[in-house]
Specification:
By secondary structure, the chain is an alpha/beta fold. The protein is 43% helix and 23% strand. The chain folds into three domains: 83 residues, Orthogonal Bundle (Arc Repressor Mutant, subunit A), CATH 1.10.10; 95 residues, Periplasmic binding protein-like II (D-Maltodextrin-Binding Protein, domain 2, 3-Layer(aba) Sandwich); 99 residues, D-Maltodextrin-Binding Protein, domain 2, CATH 3.40.190.
């Protein structure tokens, strides 16, 4: 019998939410993925755990038993890491953080460098993903803290703005619109390179296109900030992209910033954590450092 802690957490979420679809929204997961975890538990236990109906799901008698045990198992597992670390004198020596794609790739490595200069013995894990994946990691307690572009709206999460950043409209240096003062009408017919659904940057891109009356503009989906930058350099289209991703390309002249009115809205950069989870001393020190940052790039 194999019972993964992730599957148990997902099963509890389904039990508490009352349906597969509601649990999927809470967990920032797809419905098929949630269903697969439930089926895995049913296969491992050779038991039917949920009755599914038009109004949602209810626990079978076997499901009620599993839910009780699962809550106790998860409570124990949540305390194991800290207790073992404490027994080895390492309770204050682990930091697991995550960042959405741009922040995780461009900001967090610099912040961690500063932090580890004064906390050399801390064991550190850095994960990078889109907004949905980062929220899933926090809710599943795989990481304790995250830095995200934009607000993460979830009842289990606490989200604190620390500063903001600009999205710019970037084009290749040879683009015919370069050097002009533009209005949204000038962008008609242009191809936009958009991030994948689930990315916080995609939400900002969709908002900007809506503000400009260009919701139906031609677009391609690009699955990383780096790929979007290289695609713009190759002349494949325009990209609304973080000013920090393309800063070096703007300085070198490989890319240009198109001047358009109205300009894209600035977006908040936020610190995200579980609302009910106390921070360890090392996490508190990291929060103190990240909260002291008033602008990016770092001075």
């Amino acid at each position: 019998m194999h019972l993964s802690t992730q599957s148990l957490r997902i099963f509890i979420a389904v039990a508490e939410a009352g349906s597969i679809s509601a649990a999927a929204r809470v967990l920032y997961m797809s419905q098929p993925s949630v269903s697969a975890h439930v089926r895995s538990l049913e296969t491992s236990l050779a038991a039917h755990l949920l009755d599914r109906g038009p109004a949602g799901t209810t626990l079978t008698p076997a499901g009620v038993v599993l839910a009780g045990h699962a809550r106790r198992i998860l409570d124990i597992m949540d305390s194991v890491d800290g207790d073992v670390a404490a027994a080895q004198g390492q309770a204050d020596r682990k930091l697991s953080v995550a960042g959405t794609s741009t922040l995780g790739s461009y900001l967090l490595p610099r912040v961690l460098s500063r932090f580890l200069a004064e906390n050399e013995s801390v064991r550190t894990e850095l994960r990078v993903g889109n907004a949905e994946k980062v929220a899933e990691w926090i809710i599943n307690r795989e990481v304790s803290l995250a830095i995200c572009a934009g607000q993460v709206d979830h009842e289990q999460l606490e989200c604190t703005e620390i500063f903001d950043e600009a999205l710019i409209l970037a084009a290749s240096r040879a683009h015919p619109l370069a050097g002009r003062k533009l209005t949204p009408e000038d962008l008609a017919g242009q191809r936009f390179l958009l991030r994948e659904i689930g990315s916080s940057t995609r939400l900002d891109q969709d908002q900007a296109l809506a503000d400009w009356g260009l919701k139906d503009a031609p677009s391609w989906t690009i699955w990383s900030a780096e790929a979007a930058r290289e695609s713009v350099r190759a002349g494949l289209g325009l990209a609304l992209i973080s000013e920090h991703v393309v800063a070096q390309d703007l300085r070198s002249g490989e890319l240009v910033r198109l001047k358009i009115e109205p300009a894209p809205r600035r977006r908040p950069v936020t610190l995200v954590r579980m609302a009910d989870q106390p921070l360890t001393p090392v996490e508190q020190r990291f929060v103190g450092l990240i909260s002291s940052i008033k602008a990016w790039p770092l001075g």
